[in-house]
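Exercise 7 asks you to align residues with tokens for two separate proteins.
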Amino acid sequence: MYVAQLARLYVFDPNGDRVGRARDVVVALRLGSVPPRVLGLLVEIAGRRRIFVPIGRVNGIDSSAVRLGTGMLNLRRFEQRAGETLVLGELIDRSVTLDDNLARGIVVDAAMELTRGNEWLLTRLGVQETGRLGRRRGRVRQLAWDEVTGLALIEHGQSTETLLASMRGLNRADLAAELMDLPNKRRQEVAESLDDDSLADVLEELPELDQVYILGRLTDERAADVLEAMDPDDAADLLGELPASEQQRLLALMLPNEAEPVRQLLAYSEDTAGGIMTSEPVILAPDSTVAEALARLRDPELTPALATQVYVCRPPSATPTGRFLGLAHVQRLLREPPSTLVSGIVDDNVEPITPQAPLTQVTRYLARYNLVAAPVVDDQNRLVGAVSVDDVLDHLLPKGWREQATDG
């Protein structure tokens, strides 16, 4: 869809009512020849007010209209932020160099495309070549974004604030991939500018060497704060890459209640159930109700694998728990009245595994019982954690798989 054409279309809500008219497209330019990411549309509503509509709210675009997937819109007047670029307002009429013949040209239009990853990118440009005096001449050529130079962000002139703004709205995996594309110096600057929770999320998605590089250049206090914000199993994996003296120094700086589960995980070999498990699955007492269980499973911080079941244990409910009683699967929870006690629907036929179980045994266990997560208990039948299928895959895949994934 070419932006000049899109900017004439009416915008409709899910009920078919007209919201306004599209006037421009807001994008985030990126380093090098990487196509810009489309952030949203600039839409003119009644009274000539222009508002921002995130691209995620757009359900479809064709030659006749833009259709939204929701009627809930922020009607505040659009204010352009750092890192945002208007395609018609700022890219059109810009001078560029055509890479195939080094001729100069003028951008006259730009096309956005929905990729296989369900992401809108600005992938093509309409460029008209210019003569020596800058006069336009010849036909308009349709070129891929990486076939011209002169529009992408220049690394040395780009502030960290602008980089962060260009990454606004990315999920943790995509944000990690964006960081991987940056030079080490810029990567560190951006990482240090993220808040603790965001940096923790990103570190969990990065290869081990990059995790160590970023963490090692933070102050000890900031590094401890970030480790506290990470899931205990991911924090333990990261600390396991550091010398023992650095491990102990950072653990000593962490809050005791945050450091203790990480210490427990570090005690196990990394190729065992104990070495890859999380110590914070969803644990409930036997007198908890189905309603309580489902409320816990709705936590957006839970991975899909951990949100498939709850672990029923005698108090205490923090690992290591009291006696492990069994599992309650989410499918069974959804079929029961909300007031039902989980002790009445617990599945006690699944034998748990021990922390010392090797990775091959864990893999066979998940396949045998058709589970995506497995309970791990100690020799006193206390739940000490759970191993999920994503933990297993993380350790079965060859080292460096994250870099290969970001390369497509």
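Second protein for Exercise 7:
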Amino acid sequence: MKLPWSTVAIVGVGLIGGSLGKALLTRGLARRVVGIGRSKASLAEAMERQLVSEVSCDLAAVSEADFVVVATSVGSIPRLLEAADAHVAEGTLITDAGSTKQSVVSSWQKRRRHRGRFVGSHPLAGSHLRGPAAADATLFEGRVAVVTPAASTPEEDVEEVGSFWASLGSTVFVMKPREHDRILAMTSHAPHVLAAALAAVTPDADRRFTAGGWRDTTRVAGGDAELWADILLDNAAQVTKAVSTMHGYTQRMLDALAAGDRRRLVRLLTTAKDKRNALGS
């Protein structure tokens, strides 16, 4: 791939989109970064923080780009991809940054005629914070980015989108959209469900006694509820399977408690400890 890009258009300049823009400009990977969004206030903040080089409320601004990233909530991505495709120059490469992939890729594939070339992707980076104020040029450094092509996607398109994320400091993996959703259900989506449940059931009067364990476990529950509702509903079947698997292991621990079986409980806790420690800090 020839770098830098002439013009990159980012649809959605919140945490992910804003971080993308800042990283591209900081690393000199794009001569122009156009931030596109609905909120004039948010776009103004993105300009003030120098996350992008220019902004527009008109999606037609993607017509000037040679690379487009849709970095909005999962529920809006298919619609925005279709709308952006109507404006891009023929052959323009498009990707997204959504947390689920099967529905996004399938929606694109259902359309027979495309002006652009689309490859789904998902940077495994983020925060419970959102908006331009949370943007960070180093957000993608040392992180994983997953590229999820359809079966018919040309290999050169996959490589180009992979190179985009690699240029931002990410390690790139390529997998099928359905496999991505299965894995992320266990590693991201189900943990959010459990964190939200713990935060919700803890009595208000008990919160003064929380320490590191409770706060670390529930941190992601502070994420935007509307955004997470979209993610969980879009991957409902896989999330349900993941939570059910976790429930099964929890039940084994409860059974050990009920039986007063210390040896079994230690064995179950040690398995979890070893798997967690294998990940590192």
